[in-house]
Amino acid sequence: MKIKSAEFVISNSDVSKCPDSKLPEYAFIGRSNVGKSSLINALTNRKDLAKTSGRPGKTQLINHFLINQSWYLVDLPGYGYARVSKSAKKTFQKFITQYFEKREQMLCAFVLIDSRHKPQAIDMEFMSWLGEHQIPFCIIFTKADKLKPNALERNIKNYQEEMLQVWEEMPQYFVTSSANGLGSEEVLGYIQNINDNLKE
Ligand code: GDP
Question: Which of 35, 117, 142, 158 lies in the 20 to 30 Å Cα band around 78?
Answer without folding.
Answer: 158
